[in-house]
Design a protein that fits this description.
Helix content is 5%, strand content 44%. It has 4 helices and 43 strands.
């Protein structure tokens, strides 16, 4: 009995000592197609349904957004899954003698783990031949150079300009997350290529806000076979008869062209130019704002007054009119004749002239009229700045003139401040802004002194006293960089930008080009360039009907790390 009890206890202990059960390996395998009705690449197809049978239970992920049928039909087929089967039911009639490609992208996945089949597609022909040519490439954003995903890429047999506006495509593909596209089962021919972010799901470029990409190069698909026989490579047309000894062929590859089409997506600039807002917060200050950046310099002529100053902002989308004479700014209404530039429906720039009135209502006025002149600088008190800086003073009202007799600028030497005479110039856009240029010395203290009531504006207001100081960096703080740029000949604008996107330095010119900067603050930067074809200093977008592509942007492939008291050389060969 004792032996039986001990044996029973030992048995319990041995069972309790077993290691814990572990689950099996996680299923990471996508479903596998077992068969289909009809089979893939069927000929003379005339059915209304296709059934795809897989080896496990399925789910469909955003299939309506990811599925693409090429050539497209007026009404997409119904796609449902039942257990392990995907059923495609056609609602529209199919074209005769046509090869159709059904691309599901990664919409088909297993039910439990969600493992998707990447780039799953199925094809059939309503005729006796399967078309087998293919074109592929990539779509990038023209400004950021980042991939454009979920963008339709379309081929048209009609190659005239209006085709993407009036006709649905003959073949269609869609970009993946990397911007890559592939259009398969294409037949021999010549095609226009056009990409579209379809804003209203009609496969037509008919909205001004739709993002597009195009190429003026006609696409002619082809296929060749590359055969390596005894270390020598020959490329032949796939349709050529091949006489070869199979024992000698050590490499064979089918090559579809074109296989590296690069398209750059952009939005056309079709915004209409108009006066968005007029205001007169102060009786002497009339402000006018356009809805967008100007196409050229807007000008004004006084109708009820001739005595005024004009101030423009840097983007030329606003104007400020400063009334000088009290007889004018005491009027309830002042009117100007405004001339500015607009674009017509064909994107052509033309000039318009129209009157603009500014009404001042004393009873509704809630903003108190300033009683003194204020001034701000482009540096904070005791700030350390780069020695190549232009000191900028901005007054709250226009100041007609400013000289070294009106303002004191001092440089400290051996702790003693001495007066210096910088070059003082009026800003080209604003009568309120002045620039102070000087060969500021490294590691030096400076200060600006304005005496009370010394400076007068056009209304005879004066400013309070001001004392503000700054210091320049020492020479060993700076970095230096030399750029040697070669490549495709053109006129380029180059921008050195920090990692937040702020432009630190700008230069331009035809390449080959050599440029050196010696007083840069240390940090990490990127260098970008754009081909400034019209030399207006701006990276212009494209316009399809004018065959105008967006001005191309280039990015230097590496981050530029500038260190204090260090000089580096950057060589860049710009290529398409």
């Amino acid at each position: 009995m004792f032996f039986v009890v001990c044996t029973f206890i030992a048995l319990i202990y041995s069972c309790a000592s077993q290691s814990a059960l572990h689950g099996g390996h996680k299923d990471e395998k996508p479903p596998t197609l077992l068969n289909s009705e009809p089979i893939n690449k069927s000929l003379n197809f005339n059915e209304k349904k296709i059934a795809l049978n897989f080896d496990e239970f399925l789910q469909l992920k955003s299939v309506q957004q990811k599925f693409v049928m090429s050539p497209p039909v007026k009404e997409n087929p119904q796609i449902i899954n039942k257990g392990k089967t995907v059923i495609i039911s056609f609602k529209d009639s199919l074209l005769p003698n046509t090869t159709y490609n059904l691309n599901f992208s990664d919409a088909i996945a297993d039910l439990n783990e969600g493992n998707s089949i990447n780039d799953f597609h199925f094809c059939f022909s309503t005729g006796s031949v399967i078309d087998s040519l293919m074109v592929s490439g990539k779509v990038l954003n023209a400004i950021t150079l980042k991939p454009e995903k979920n963008m339709f890429v379309m081929l048209y047999t009609d190659t005239i300009d209006s085709t993407p506006i009036k006709q649905v495509p003959y073949y269609i593909g869609k970009t993946n997350d990397n911007g890559d596209f592939k259009i398969e089962n294409v037949k021999n021919g010549r095609y226009k290529i056009f990409a579209l972010q379809d804003g209203n799901s009609n496969m037509l470029f008919d909205l001004p806000s739709e993002i597009i990409a195009f190429s003026d190069t006609i696409i002619v698909p082809s296929v060749t076979t590359e055969i390596n026989v005894n270390d020598s490579t020959t490329i032949i047309d796939v349709n050529d008869s091949i006489k070869n000894d199979s024992s000698k062929v050590i490499f064979k590859k089918i090559i579809y062209k074109p296989d590296s089409i690069n398209l750059f997506a952009f939005e056309e600039d079709r915004a209409k130019q108009f006066v968005k807002k007029v205001s007169r917060s102060y009786k002497n200050k009339c402000m006018l704002q356009f809805n967008r950046k100007g196409f050229g310099n807007a000008t004004v002529d006084g109708i009820t007054t001739k005595n005024f100053l004009t101030e423009k902002n840097e983007t030329l989308d606003s104007l400020t009119l400063w009334l000088i004479d009290s007889l004018d700014y005491l009027k309830d209404t002042v009117t100007f004749q405004l001339k500015y530039f607009k674009k017509d429906s064909l994107n052509k720039i033309f000039e318009v002239t129209e009157p603009v009135s500014f009404v001042y209502n004393v009873n509704a006025q809630k903003v108190q009229q300033p009683s003194k002149l204020n001034v701000i600088t482009n540096f904070t008190n005791k700030q350390v700045v780069n020695s190549n800086i232009d000191i900028i003073l901005r007054f709250s009202n226009p100041v007609l003139n400013l000289t070294n007799n009106d303002i004191i600028v001092e440089e400290a030497k051996d702790s003693v401040y001495n007066i210096i005479l910088p070059n003082i110039t009026h800003d080209s856009l604003s009568p309120c802004v002045f620039h102070f240029s000087y060969l500021w010395k490294d590691n030096m203290n400076y200060r600006i002194i304005i005496e009370k009531n010394k400076i007068h504006d056009i209304y005879n207001l004066t400013c309070d006293s001001l004392v503000k100081s700054f210091k320049t960096y020492s020479a060993d703080n700076y970095s230096a960089v030399s750029f040697s740029i070669t490549g495709k000949e053109n006129f380029y604008v180059f921008q050195l930008v920090d990692l937040t996107g702020n432009v630190v330095q700008t230069f331009n010119g035809n390449i080959p080009l050599i440029k050196k900067f010696t007083q840069l603050n240390p940090g990490k930067f990127r260098l970008k360039a754009f081909a400034d074809n019209n030399k207006n200093g701006e990276c212009d977008t494209g316009f399809y009907l004018e065959h105008k592509l967006p001005e191309k942007i280039y990015l230097y492939p590496e981050e530029i790390n500038l260190r204090s008291n260090w000089e580096i050389d950057i060589k860049w060969d710009i290529k398409d």
